[in-house]
Amino acid sequence: QVQLVESGGGLVQPGGSLRLSCAASGSIVSINAMDWYRQAPGKQRELIATITTGHSTNYAEFVEGRFTISTNNARNTVYLQMNSLKPEYTALYYCHTFHWRDYWGQGTQVTVSS
Predict the structure, then answer these.
(1) Confidence grade of residue 86 (pLDDT, cut at 50, 70, 90)
(2) Is 7:93 a contact under the CB 8 Å cutoff?
(3) DSSP string, 91-102
């Protein structure tokens, strides 16, 4: 079992920044990668970024260099630094990993609005 808890969402003005955190606990030793997803109202959940235990990273094309995924040394927390935010980035942001099955956090709301 793996538990994921996101935090760091909130209301931010266009052009602003937020740093999301995802705290992982449970059977995390065997996790190979963790991801951030987002789901805007009326849209499908989409992958934003992935980081592996070897610290390799991959980003969706829409990120355009605005986001950075990282992890702490203990590899039990994953971060998503988001800069130059746009209103269309308003969504519920989820942390995800796969270990025999999919695990999701409860999500953290990001609202970009003036």
Answers:
(1) very high
(2) no
(3) EEEEEEEESSSE
- For 20, half-sphere exposure in the C-beta direction (CA atoms, 13 angstrom radius) is 32
> 1 burial class (0-12, 13-18, 19+ CB within 10 angstroms)?
exposed
Measured distance CA(95)–CA(114) in Å, rounded = 26
Query: Contact, 83 vs 105, CB < 8 A?
Result: no
Distance CA 11, CA 56 (A): 30
What residue type is assigned to position 102 of the chain?
D
What are the structure tokens assigned to 82, written together? 């988001």
35-45 tens-digit pLDDT: 999 999 999 99
